Amino acid sequence: MHRPRPASTGRAVLLAAALLLPATSARAAAVAGKEEAAIRAVFPAADAVEAKDVILTDEMAARIERLARARVRERLVTFYTARHGADVLGYAVIHSHVVRTKRETLSIAFEPDGRLRKITVLAFLEPPEYRPSERWLAQLTGKGPGDRLAVGQDLAPISGATLTARGVAEESRWLMQALREAMGVGR
Length: 187
Description:
Elements: H1 7-29, H2 34-42, E1 48-55, H3 58-68, E2 76-84, E3 87-98, E4 103-110, E5 116-124, H4 134-138, H5 162-183
Antiparallel strand pairs: 1-2, 2-3, 3-4, 4-5
Helix pairs in contact: 3-5
């Protein structure tokens, strides 16, 4: 799954991280717009939502791919933390991927212990008949790193939309592992 990259890639990632630090600090202070609305919809009791950009190293990506049985296609991931006072209500990530030829954007919310809380489709550019239903997405609620999250095994398939079901399952698996790896949640 993981392809080795030249040593210069690691230096490029570190340079990119150094350049992003000022932007990351500003982002952590305030989350605005559509991202905040999507996160507050899942965590209505939150009085603060903080963003943290994480750049996955080659080692982190390899570990995530192995544990998630899914390819890490993005090295920069923004995790949102929903808080009520000092208490963490949970985490979320907003992520896009290609289903067949067009993008789907998901809001994936996690409990404080890293289990899946809720997945919401924010945008789906494929034909509407391939879109996962709320009922199908609900079967992922409460699933954690110990669950396989495999279509046809512990997840029901979506008739006529196999690529959609596999895409949601894969994104859920690798982002759940990325949350554990990068943020230390659920360890």
